[in-house]
Amino acid sequence: MMVMLTFDDSVNVGNFDFFRKLFDGKFRNPNGCGIKGTFFVSGDATQYHLVEELYKMGMEISSHSLSHRSPTTWWAKAGYDGYVHEIEGMRKRLSRQGKIPHDDIKGMRVPFLQVGGDDQYQMLADYDYLYDSSMVTGHLYKNDKPPVWPFTLDWAPDSKTCSLAPCPQKSYPGLWEIPLIRWYGSNKMACAMPDGCVIGLGRQGTLDYLNDNFNRHYSTNRSPLGIFLHASWFRRKAGNFEGMMDFLQELSRMDDVWVISASQVLDWIKKPVPISQVKNIDSWQC
Questions:
Q1: Looking at beta carbons, which pairs linking 10-15 to residues 24 or more positions away fall under 8 Å?
Q2: What is d(CA 166, CA 174) in angstroms, rounded to the nearest whole number?
Q3: Closest of 91, 44, 47, 51 to residue 69, by C-alpha
Q4: CA-to-CA distance for 195 and 182, rounded, in angstroms?
Q5: Residue 205 to residue 90: CA distance in whole angstroms
Q6: pLDDT band at residue 279 under the 50/70/90 scheme
Q7: Long-range contacts for 169-175 (Cβ within 8 Å, ≥24 apart)?
Q8: For residues 178 and 150, is the Cβ–Cβ distance under 8 A?
Q9: Which of 124, 146, 212, 247 has its CA 20 to 30 A from that of 206?
Q10: DSSP label at 146?
Q11: Where are the domains positioned within the chain?
């Protein structure tokens, strides 16, 4: 099973120590390579030399807008030119100031998860993005139905896979969507991102929460688990960071679980192979 650990918003000295500890090489995948993450970086308060350091550590860098501007509704009506300015503009800045090859920045996530309809997705198609990761899917109350897999936009999504309008109405062949599958807290209520749920106290409460949502994927169709966070979550409750470290340690002991970037997940989905042949996936290697 594949697990994606991603972070939204700015990268700076206020959160970089968390990232360094998570990805310092202590946690490894079954092939001995260190785990990887994806960073959806916004331009507000970002220090680009630290983004460059993340990239050199093997992390994937994606666009999360230049401004991360409010209100939320602005993104629903930003229009094609607005998305070019905010998303492609941030991609160019990440490339220029973070010293990252432009073509290595393959994905985006819209601020507040407020998708912008066909204007957003036409821009992504025109500027050769590989994927978006903004659509929220899943029930509002805990249930036993298997979560969905990432999918292409060869056909327009329905309300089950894009539950927050305005959703795209056209098809965008070859463009992928990595959906945000709702998580469920200790009160059985859903959250769009894992740091929005009510969870148990302390380190053990965090570990139990992570394991519970992991097992919902692992025990059903093993769709990739997205742990899509803001680094501020680690300061919100005592034990959140320690519980995450415990969880990653548990995963590193499993011979069939891989913590990899969003692009690496898509590399496998596009050409799936059994675990015995993952050595043939170039991007999964050290």
A1: 10/41, 10/42, 10/43, 10/44, 10/45, 10/46, 10/68, 11/39, 11/41, 11/46, 11/47, 11/50, 11/51, 11/54, 12/45, 12/46, 12/47, 12/50, 13/47, 13/50, 15/231, 15/232
A2: 21
A3: 44
A4: 11
A5: 37
A6: confident
A7: 169/117, 169/118, 170/118, 170/121, 170/122, 172/121, 172/122, 172/124, 172/125, 174/125, 175/121, 175/124, 175/125, 175/129, 175/130, 175/131, 175/132
A8: yes
A9: 146
A10: P
A11: 2-284
> What is the Cα 269 distance to its own chain's centre?
16
Question: In this structure, is the dihedral angle defined by the CA atoms of residues 34, 38, 44 and 47, taken in order, positive or negative?
Answer: positive
- By percentage, how much of the chain surpasses pLDDT 70? 100
Name which of 71, 18, 2 is nearest 229 in CA terms. Answer: 18
Confidence of residue 159 (pLDDT cuts 50, 70, 90): confident
Which DSSP state fits 182?
P
Task: Specify whether the CB–CB gap between 248 and 27 falls below 8 A.
Answer: yes
Is the whole-model pTM more than 0.90?
yes
- Between CA 213 and CA 221, with CA 215 as vertex, the angle to 5 degrees is 105
- H or E stretch covering 211: helix 202-218
Query: Packing angle between helix 202-218 and helix 240-252, nearest 10 degrees?
Result: 40
CA pair distance 286, 224, nearest whole angstrom: 21
In the numeric block, which tokens belong to residue 164? 């927050």
CATH code given to domain 2-284: 3.20.20.370
Taking a C-beta distance cutoff of 8 angstroms, is the pair 43, 85 a contact?
no
Look at residue 143 and tell me whether its pLDDT is greater than 80.
Answer: no
Which residue type sits at 83? Y
Give tens-digit pLDDT for 113-125: 999 999 999 999 9
- Please state the length of the chain: 286
Tokens in use for 49? 């030399």
